Amino acid sequence: MALRAVSRIIRRFARNSSGGFSVVAAVAMPALASAAMLAVDLSKVYQQQSVLQSAADSAAIAGASELRVANADSRRVAAVSLNYVASKIGASLSPTQPDSSAVTTAQQPSAGGPAAPQTSTALLVSRNGDLTNVTSVFDGVGATVAIKLRQDVATVMARYVAPSLTEVEATSTARMMGAAPLCMISLEETTSQALWLQAGSRVTANGCAVYSNSSSSSGLVVDATSSVTATKVCSVTTPASRVNSTPAPVACPALRPDPLGYRTALAASCPLNLPPLVIQGSASVMLPPGLYCGGITIKDNAVVTLTGTSGLPGGIYVMGGDLQVKNKAVLKMLDTNAGAAFYFTGQKSRFVFDDETQVALSAPRTGELAGFLFFEDPGRATSGDAPLNFEIKSKKVTQLLGTIYLKNGILRMDLDAKGAGAIADQSAFTVVVARKVQLKDGPNLVLNSNYAGTSVPVPQGVGPTGGVIALSK
Fold first, then answer.
1. pTM
2. 130, 169, 129: which is closest to 149 by C-alpha?
3. Name one Pfam family in it (predicted).
4. Parallel, antiparallel, or unpaired: how do β-strands 220-222 and 195-198 relate?
5. Any bridge partners for residue 132, and if so which?
6. Domain boundaries in the chain?
7. Alpha carbons 240 and 234: distance in angstroms, whole number
């Protein structure tokens, strides 16, 4: 607007045909030029204010996201935040650590002990020479990261006329909300029955949170005969009917992206239409990790012991077909140190634990799928294929120690009126992240959260490192 006003004045002088125009113009032009330069300066200041605010918001969110990491501290949070600021304002900085040529104030936490908010400061030099002071405040108790940016904008006229206008500040604070460990998440975002309990079913989440990501008013359904007990029950949309849960569901923002979405497919593939490995009768078999492209069927009282990481680092069983346990068969680990990860790939591979079977499994402690017990190829979620049902029909599935990640799968537990039974209750912890979770006819899925009680790791983004990041101001 200032530039248009200056332009109108100049045009008015130009149309003036009186003899005094030259004199007036000679007197007025310096003032008009100064006004034009001031207008340009102010426009630059306002534009830089917007840039700094965007940088502060991004840096605060990035820093708060680091609170999901169990060993996050002020130095790590400050380094991550500083990288985001540098990328937004065009300053040169190492992608992982502050560049000593760009940072003139050492990042040191303030005194006061680990419980007190920790402050770090740095000075960034952008490629055009602008100096930006960056202050980050990490409050581990309040689960917040505050970012303050201050920059003196290089101007031509404004620095003389109004020096205070050239100093731009932007502040932003992000908080990790719902800091209770995330132990169950249904990823479905739009349709009904994303998290569905009926006919005497239960989810008992000891010390952790249960989350329905569906925007459908019927996304979270728990009938009067069923129940959910957790530290926190979240639903993106208020349920259309009463949900029998303790505590009552609260509105939470959608978890986007998928908290485990950073995990990618393994470099493993299988030929199609291979026959399964069948283990049956009274056989007792030790099964090492490897490619099982036709799947594995265990039946008729057979006992299969997985050597897992006791036999091969990583302990990964790649499944190109179903893992089926039925007819009173047993599937277990070799010993307390063994761990196995089942990777389901191809168009159709899933697990089915049938009635009266016994299953006790634990995830590997090392390797590419450390901490994961069941991992579905994430490419299925983008392939357009219909979701597969991963089924537990036995009340003798006592241990599922680790994380179950079925990005496009439906975890179904149905005891088919055979009487109530606990599932996974003997696990130190169990985390479930699936497209949908549906329970029927008596199962009680027990999600313990004794993360310190085992050396099996919890993947970043769930369990104690889960939480929703939001700007609080």
1. 0.67
2. 169
3. Tad
4. parallel
5. 124, 151
6. 2-8+25-177, 182-471
7. 14
